[in-house]
Queue: 3 jobs
Job 1
Amino acid sequence: MAKINNDIYSVLIPKIGTTPSISLAKADNAAFPANKLTVMGGEFPHWSSNSNQVNWSLGASYFSFNLERHQQFKDSLDLAKKKEKDLAKNDKKEDQEKDKKEKKEDPTFKADEYVVKVLYNRAIPKGYTLLKGGRIITMENDQVIENGDILIKDNRIEAIGASGSLTLPNGTKTIDVSGKTITPGFVDTHAHMWPNWSLHKNQVWIYSANLAYGVTTTRDPQTATTDVLTYSDMVEAGMIHGPRVYSTGPGVGYWQYKIESLDHAKNVLKQYSDYYHTKYIKMYLVGNSQQRQWVIMASKELGLLPTTEGGLDFKSNMKNMIDGYPGHEHALPIYPIYKDVVQTAAESQMAINSNAL
């Protein structure tokens, strides 16, 4: 069994002298019998105890591919094709042409899928809290309240005003913040909060540090692994400290995918729409113009918002803009930038994250 990029394969390795090199670029044409087991991709593959099944997961779903049943399926399909071929020899030529036009794709064998649901309550504080006597920078133009109060209900701001002017419900907890300046929470739209991968921590110091410095919402536009999905769930469940964590999940990158068609792009992106539930993706230099267009077309159909990797390629950046990609990470790589570029960017309404590192 082999995991290559984000797909999982089974391959028969013959017992001969040295282990041969076997290419799985096209599993059907491999030098020795091989099968591509995944449709959309998969993670954490492992053998069953009897070696008859390959198991893996994707998001909150568990997949099990039975190799014996798959072989039986292939044998039955080959037998059916042979019978059709024998019957076709007796058909008239025009009937054969008609059959070719009406020919449907062969049925495929897929792994059994088990959706795992684990329910947690979202961590939402209860009750009223008053932050009293602080210098408050508001979001109403340039208004600053030098001595003000903030009334919070559960996890939402209920009222802001001059100190002593707010009506307080019974049981309100008061916190003296005199001498301190309170600002709206910061939103970091390009936050790579990456702990060590693959081994989950009980607390992620990067998350705590961001929260301590006033960052209340983050967006990671390329997480490299799916660890972030678990950590964001842990934050929402109150199991670890942290700001709100949004992300694209792992980038849809050239190192993992060679997009072959619009349907292939849809299969790849269903990981994000149906299993990771990220709402966003990062199109990371997946290929040529046609392949990038397939990605944005599939994103639109699946309800995903794609952002892009700049890659220091100004021509590609402008092409992505014209194709309708709504986001661009990193600065445009030329200087100076003239009016035609500024106007095109403005009219395209692309969000260009120019300060991202």
Note: The mean pLDDT is 91.
Job 2
Amino acid sequence: PVLQADLRLDTFTLLPAPWDAYPKEAPAGKKYRDDYRLERLTGVLRPMKGLKITGGDFYAQFGNGIALSLRKVDELGLETVLRGGRIDGKWGLFSFTILGGVTNVNNIDQKDQYFAEDPLDRLVGVRTGVKTPGGRLKLGLHGVWLRPATEEISSENTWITGGNLDAVLVPGKLMMGFEGDFGWFDGADRHHEYTRTDEHTGYAFYLNLRAKMGPVSLLVEGKIYDTFSFLGSKRYDTDLVGIAYNQPPTAERMDQEVDNTSTVLGGRLKLDWRILPTLSVYGNFGGGDYVSLSDIIRYSGTGQVAYHKSQYLHAYGGLDMRWSQNRSSFAISGGYRSEREPKARADLDLGWKQNKSLIHGEAKLNLFLHKDWNLHATFLHEHHTKLDLGDELGYEWGTHILGFDWAGVLDVSGGFEYDTDPITADWYGFGMVKWYIRSNLIWAVFAGTQRGGLKCVGGVCKIVPPFAGVRTELVFRY
């Protein structure tokens, strides 16, 4: 199509409720509010082959997301877009992107129901790319500038420049990806644990190697991030950090809690072995140190010690099997993670102490029953330990779901969760129904109680409140 347009209207209304129902007053720094607005309006024009002009609200990402990543994270109810203009061009071996505007977020938090104004931080970005004939080598260069609308905790100005290289070293057998970025931050001490200056620079390097040797696949990832982050205005007045406009690769599990994505040295090694066409196993080992490499170099030989926030090791593995012409599948995995911190920040010779550990096990089953009917089940159990006033505290988390799916028509499931942490200990039960009324019309209903707590996706973490009641959603696509 030459012209395409998308429109989204958001409405939110608080209904009268008994005094003991959902709290009518939000915590300090947050608020509940009725809201009705034109939330997303996007127009895309393709005036000629290879050229696309976008106006309105749009997502954006450069490279691996280290320099810029404005996207949607459904699991956490987060969504950030840029409201402005964008031009994308692609002719032969060359491509480019120019974008600019102000940042726009969901004004009603889907998980907490709190209201937040759009940050309206000004952002400009440029990206160019070139590839060799055949596409075996791709080089990209990019630059981003940000000026937050408020400067309470973020830099007055942030400049980021960098590039990424993707190379097919041996076709079908060995591939490499690399990205390096440098940032200049002024006007705020955003990384006080690692640097004491208001104006400073930061850098980030990320490398991945993927090799395939017959039935064996190997992934190697490495990261060096040093006082490098991309923060804008605060979402709520009580927030300690601003909204992140980037999402660097963590080199860890997608659902893992990550202490820091701006200053860390780490990596991982993952090995996959396809034993049979329908059976594969894998093993993963990763580790890292939340410390500034620049500080290690600076303090070397001076008798001073660089600030080590913590160190981690994580090993896990599993298997995946399929049958019934890949219509049925079963996957199981498990592993152990340990985190430790120095007993004394100024003297590492005194040793380290474990502050957290995690033993986790997961299983997923999708069983083909008959024609369009399937049974699906998910089981997750985690054993956590943490330091509580100097003592080690152990507790359990779990989520177990069982359901039936009538393909393209109906999905019915139920489950229960538990949390034995003395502070939040409780049991939860719920049921969910999703009805595909038409191909473009879906009605979903959730009823029961759901566990809250910390939830993480790709290094982005958020405290999700527990839920009790009935929630319904009607989605119409056109």
Note: The longest strand covers residues 352-370.
Job 3
Amino acid sequence: MSRMSFGFSSLLLVVACGGGGNSVTPPPTNSTVAAHAGDGQTALDGTPVAIAPAVRVTDAAGAPVAGSGVTFTAASGGGHITQGTTTTDPNGVAAVGAWTLGRLGGNTTSAINTLVATVAGNDITGNPVTFSANAWGNSWASKQSLGTPRAALALGTVNGVVYAVGGAAVGGVVQIPSEAYNPATNSWSNKAGLGTARANLGVGVVGNDLYAVGGTDHNFTPTGTVEVYNPTTDSWAGRTDMPTPRAYLGVEVLNGVLYAVGGWAGDTALGTVEAYNPATDSWTTRASLPTPRMGLAVAALDGVLYAVGGAGHNGQETAIVEAYNPATNSWSTRASLPAGRMEFALAAHNGLLYAIGGWKNSGAMSAGVDAYDPESNTWSPRSSMPTLRCKVGITVMNGLLYVAGGYDYTGQWHGELEVYQP
């Protein structure tokens, strides 16, 4: 039964795709085949190219040849096709149904896929035709920059929109409008600014609400201020202050609870961990971070909260990684970063953590990207961020890592938005 079904489906495929009728005949002698559409494209790893590759067959006089059999084969790169065999239509054109790109090796920046179209017959000029496409993976792309260059900001995503909140710009910590990025139009628009201007804060998203926590005010004083943003009304409202005022902290949401981890109290690095329940607008204290630090970054992955890097009381950067299990309210040590860094970006995606950018106490900057695999407890390098900077904001949306803003300690405030495809 399965063989009969397969044969019937194949017959339907030829009839549906063969514009030249049911018969397949070789093209006349001295015919030519050439790429008609779809060469040189780029698409995300694991997604089809926008234009289906197509070839056109013509005879010696340049007239289209219908009914010629064409076989499409995914030749290299790890991609795959659908409707791999077809016939040319009255215009002499045959197209593959879909070409989904792949990325062999996973970690390489080279992601060229090739597709070969072969016309059945002899003495055909240009036969076979090779198409190439780039599977976008482990690579960066530049998007529209922020309207206001700023550093020490925070990013969050609500309903497919990226929000840039707070930060410091030219002139210091001043009132800066929040900005919203629409990936469909590659554009930013101004939104309501925080009620309390601040930088070096953290944000977390619970449901459709974005919470801004802590940071430094215009006097560079750590604060415990908490505000929540409603995208529908474009408005901020106050919530119960965080018990421990602090900045340069890590903020992340895990299982609907917002965690504030570590940070700077104005004179020392902290190991304090406090958890906020949006349903009750209340805070509770959790097990302290074993290694007090500021300028760290945190991210949640598979039910575990990771605290990565940062700097200790003396301002010296660290590579320490510690993991928090909310079920046991306990921390454990994991493999350290390849090198210490602080004020960098950290995000979780598809089973991995990505540490991006940052700087060292020596003043050395980094655009490096390192990925952590919790299964093997190892870090490995990835393609570097195009723009050297620290104090950036980061968020994840639709499988992409969005990194915006920053500072590079040469006096340059950054507004760049760069997007990383793992």
Note: The chain has a mean pLDDT of 91.
